[in-house]
Amino acid sequence: MMLAVAAALLGTLVALLLLKRSRAGAPEVARESTPALDRFVRDALEHELAEPVLGIRGSTPEERKRLARTLADEPEADVVGKIEELVRAVELEFVRYAHERDVEVTVRVRYEDGTTGTATQRLTLVDVPEVVRAELDAKGSTRVFRSWAFPWQRVRAL
């Protein structure tokens, strides 16, 4: 009987520790991006990469479906291969001036041939990742830079 009670208490303790650990870890992941930022980056990359990756200038959303799915974490091998061949890096620049209430976000695509493509959009401060807001506030910076990785390049913890 005592063994059963001890096992039940130990099981409850382990469950509570796991629950606390999962809650403690969740905000860290959520702080790295926001839905609005993810949407902007995906849309910007879809338009920027359509011509070099798909070979279609002035493409329609229908023509960009394969690229859009790949950028939304449903990668197609030939699209991924072409992107990996052409793109050296994707960088994000966040700019906020003291008198402004929002943040200008620039997606900068650096190609292997040395050319660069950019897209810019303003986001509300709430739509900027918490870690970027904290850096802008803590350091009094007007600019924060972040590298961006394609979905298939991100390491996932088990």
Written description of the protein model:
By secondary structure, this protein is of the alpha+beta class. It has one domain. The chain contains 5 helices and 4 strands. The chain has a 4-stranded antiparallel beta sheet. A hairpin with a 6-residue loop joins strand 1 and strand 2. Helix 2 crosses helix 4. The protein is globular. About 16% of the residues have low confidence.
What is the helix content? 40-55%
Alpha-carbon distance between the termini? Answer: 36 Å
Order of helices and strands: HHHHEEEHE
Give the DSSP E fraction (strand runs of 2 or more residues): 15-25%
Tell me the radius of gyration.
21 Å
Strand order of the largest sheet: 3-2-1-4
Secondary structure class reads alpha+beta
Shape: globular
Low-confidence stretches: 5-30
Average of per-residue pLDDT values: 82
- Count every beta strand, where a strand is a DSSP E run of 2 or more residues: 4
User: What is the number of domains?
Assistant: 1
Q: How can the largest sheet be summarized?
A: 4 strands, antiparallel
Total helical segments:
5
